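sry for the spam today, last one i promise. C-alpha cells for design, 420 residues
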C-alpha cells in the first residue's frame, strides 16, 4: 500500500513507500509457487534441467522480480509523483518483465502440476473446443499481437485516458494489466518458447524493430512537445527539482533512448539466432548437395563416355562395310565388351586372327555381359551361362516386342576353324 499521498512524495520519503496490496502480493506468490511446484515435479520425472532448462527457470524468476520492482517497490509511488517515474514503471513491465516471463516457458510447468490423465483430458477438451483453439491462434497472429500491444501503448498515453488512470485506482490497475498482458502476447509471438513458431527469425527481426521505431516516435513526441500533456501527472515534479515540461521531456528521453536500446538488443539477438539457424540449415544440406553434385557429374561423365564409344563404334563399322568380308555391325563372335555393341577392339580388323577362346566366352565360360559391366546391363541376351546366346545382337534377344522369336543370323569371321 502507498503510505504517502501521491504528489506529496519527496525524495527523502521514497523508501518508506511500498505497495503492499494483498491482491498483488497474492498474485505474485501464486505465480511463483505454481511455477516452482510444476517445475519440481517435471525435474523429478525427467531430471534436473530437462524439459525446462535452468536458464528458463531463472528468466521466469527474473520476470517476477521485475513485476515486483515495478508494482511493489517504492517505484510505484514515484510513478504517481513524476512522469519519468511512471515511464520507468511501464517500461519495466513491457520490456523487462514480459519477455523474461515468456522465456520462462510457464505453460510447461503449469501443465506438469496436473497428473497424466488430467493432462490428457485437458488436451482432448482443447481439441474439441475448436473455437477456443481458433481464438488462441488468432490472438497469436503476429500482426494482431503487434497491433494490440502498440495500440495499448498509444491509447494509454492519450491525455484524457492517462489522467483518468491517475484519478482512479481501478483504471490505473487496468492500465497496468493491459500493458503487461499485451506485452506478454507481443513477446510470446516472437520468442515462442513452446509449440510451432508463428514467424521466422527474419520476420521476428522486423517485428521487433518496427515496435522499437514506434516507441521512439512516441518518445520523440513527448521530448519535443512545447507544453506538458499531463498536468495532473506533474504535480509533484517541483519536489524533485523539475518543471512539468522538463519532467515530460525526461520521460520522453527515457522512452526514446533506453527503451530503444532494449528493442535493438532484442533485434540483435534475433539476428544472431537467424544466422545460426541458417548455418545449421546449410550444414545439414551441404553433404547431401555435394553428394548429389558428385553423382550428377559421374552420370554425366559416364553418359559422355558411352556416347563417344558408340560414335567410335559406328565409325569403325562404317569403315569396314565395303570390305570383302562384309561384317555386320551388330555382333561378332569375339570376347570382351563389344559383343553387344559391335565395337572392334584396338588392332582388330577384317583380317585379324582371333583365338577361339576369345570368340566364344571369357575364361569362366560366362558371357561378358553377365559381369554387369557399365552401360551393358546384366545378361541382356539370356542366361549368363548360355553359350548359344553369345553372338546375338541386342535386337535379336528376347525382348518386349518380339518375345525372343526374332533372331539375327550368326556371322562367321575369317580365321582358323573352331576346335570342339
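last one done:
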Amino acid at each position: 500500500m502507498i503510505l504517502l499521498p501521491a504528489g506529496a512524495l519527496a525524495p527523502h520519503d521514497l523508501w518508506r513507500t511500498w505497495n503492499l496490496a494483498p491482491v498483488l502480493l497474492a498474485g505474485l506468490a501464486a505465480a511463483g509457487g505454481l511455477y516452482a511446484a510444476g517445475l519440481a515435479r517435471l525435474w523429478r520425472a525427467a531430471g534436473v534441467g530437462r524439459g525446462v532448462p535452468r536458464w528458463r527457470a531463472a528468466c521466469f524468476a527474473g520476470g517476477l522480480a521485475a513485476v515486483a520492482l515495478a508494482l511493489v517497490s517504492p517505484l510505484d509511488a514515484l510513478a504517481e509523483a513524476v512522469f519519468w517515474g511512471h515511464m520507468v514503471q511501464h517500461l519495466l513491465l513491457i520490456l523487462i518483465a514480459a519477455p523474461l516471463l515468456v522465456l520462462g516457458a510457464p505453460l510447461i510447468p503449469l501443465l506438469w502440476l496436473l497428473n497424466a490423465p488430467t493432462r490428457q483430458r485437458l488436451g482432448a477438451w482443447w481439441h474439441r473446443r475448436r473455437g477456443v483453439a481458433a481464438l488462441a491462434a488468432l490472438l497469436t497472429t503476429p500482426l494482431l499481437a503487434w497491433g494490440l500491444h502498440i495500440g495499448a501503448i498509444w491509447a494509454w498515453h492519450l491525455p484524457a485516458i492517462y489522467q483518468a488512470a491517475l484519478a482512479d485506482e481501478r483504471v490505473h490497475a487496468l492500465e497496468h494489466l493491459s500493458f503487461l498482458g499485451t506485452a506478454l502476447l507481443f513477446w510470446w509471438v516472437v520468442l515462442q518458447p513452446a509449440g510451432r513458431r508463428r514467424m521466422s527469425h527474419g520476420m521476428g527481426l522486423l517485428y521487433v524493430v518496427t515496435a522499437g521505431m514506434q516507441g521512439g516516435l512516441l518518445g520523440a513526441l513527448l521530448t519535443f512537445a512545447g507544453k506538458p500533456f499531463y498536468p495532473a501527472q506533474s504535480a509533484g515534479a517541483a519536489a524533485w527539482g523539475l518543471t512539468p515540461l522538463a519532467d515530460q521531456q525526461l520521460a520522453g528521453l527515457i522512452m526514446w533512448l533506453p527503451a530503444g536500446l532494449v528493442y535493438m538488443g532484442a533485434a540483435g539477438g534475433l539476428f544472431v539466432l537467424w544466422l545460426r539457424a541458417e548455418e545449421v540449415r546449410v550444414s545439414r544440406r551441404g553433404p547431401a548437395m555435394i553428394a548429389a553434385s558428385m553423382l550428377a557429374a559421374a552420370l554425366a561423365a559416364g553418359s559422355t563416355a558411352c556416347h563417344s564409344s558408340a560414335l567410335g563404334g559406328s565409325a569403325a563399322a562404317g569403315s569396314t562395310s565395303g570390305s570383302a568380308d562384309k561384317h555386320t555391325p551388330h555382333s561378332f563372335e569375339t570376347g570382351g565388351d563389344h559383343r553387344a555393341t559391335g565395337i572392334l577392339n584396338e588392332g582388330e580388323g577384317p583380317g585379324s586372327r582371333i583365338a577361339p577362346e576369345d570368340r566364344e566366352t571369357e575364361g569362366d565360360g560366362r558371357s561378358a555381359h553377365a559381369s554387369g559391366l557399365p552401360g551393358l546391363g546384366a545378361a541382356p541376351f539370356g542366361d549368363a551361362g548360355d553359350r548359344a546366346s553369345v553372338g546375338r545382337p541386342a535386337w535379336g534377344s528376347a525382348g518386349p516386342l518380339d518375345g525372343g522369336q526374332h533372331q539375327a543370323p550368326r556371322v562367321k569371321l575369317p580365321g582358323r576353324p573352331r576346335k570342339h
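Residues 11-116+130-287 form one domain. ok im logging off now
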